Amino acid sequence: MILNSPLQQENKGVINTVVCDICGAPGTGTLVSAEDMRKAVFKNGFNPFALGLAGQLHSAFGIDSSAAFEGWKNTIVAQDTSDWNICAKCMSKLRPYLEGKPRPTGVKKATVSANHLVGALAAKEAERKYKRKKRWQFWKK
Ligand SMILES: [Zn+2]
C-alpha cells in the first residue's frame, strides 16, 4: 500500500515499519487483497472518512471529507494491486463491507500511479466493474 511502501522498499522485510493502510496505526493487522478493498469501496460503499477512521489520509487528500474520499478512492483504491494492512479497529468497521473472508494475495509492491489520467481511468474502470447496471441499461454488457 502507498502509505508504507517507501519504507518497505528501503527495509525489505522489516515488519515494524508497517502501519495500518487506513488510519496509520503501527503494527501488522489483517491483510486484505486490493481486489477485496475495491469491492468494499466501489461496490459496497465502505468510506473510512465518513467512519472517522482515516485521520492520516485526510492530510494527504484534503480536509473536506467527501473530496478526500473521492481522491483516495480514485487513486489508491482504484489502482492499488498490493495487499492492504488493516488494523483491528479498522477491520471491525471494514468487515461488514467485505464479501467473505479477506484473501490476501501476497502482493507487496504498490503500483499506484501519481498520474491523474491513469487515476481517472482506473477509477472509471473500477466504477464500471462494480457498479450495478441501471435497469434501463439492460442492453449494455
Ligand atoms: Zn487502522
Describe the structure.
With 141 residues, this protein is mainly α. It has one domain (5-137). It has helices spanning 5-10, 34-43, 55-61, 65-79, 88-94, 116-130, and strands at 30-32, 84-86. The protein has a two-stranded antiparallel ribbon with strand order 1-2. α4 packs across α6. The longest helix is centred in the middle third of the chain and has 15 residues, at 65-79. The protein is globular, with a radius of gyration of 15 Å. The termini are far apart. The model is unreliable at 4-15 (pLDDT under 50). The protein binds zinc ion. Zinc ion binds at residues 20, 22-23, 25, 87, 89-90.
Helical proportion, percent range: 40-55%
Number of strands: 2
Give the DSSP E fraction (strand runs of 2 or more residues). under 5%
How does the overall form come out from the CA principal axes?
globular
First-to-last CA distance: 32 Å
Query: Can you tell me the number of structural domains?
Result: 1
Tell me the number of helical segments per DSSP (H or I, 4 or more residues long): 6
- The residue-averaged pLDDT reads 78
- Read across the widest sheet, the strand sequence of neighbours is 1-2
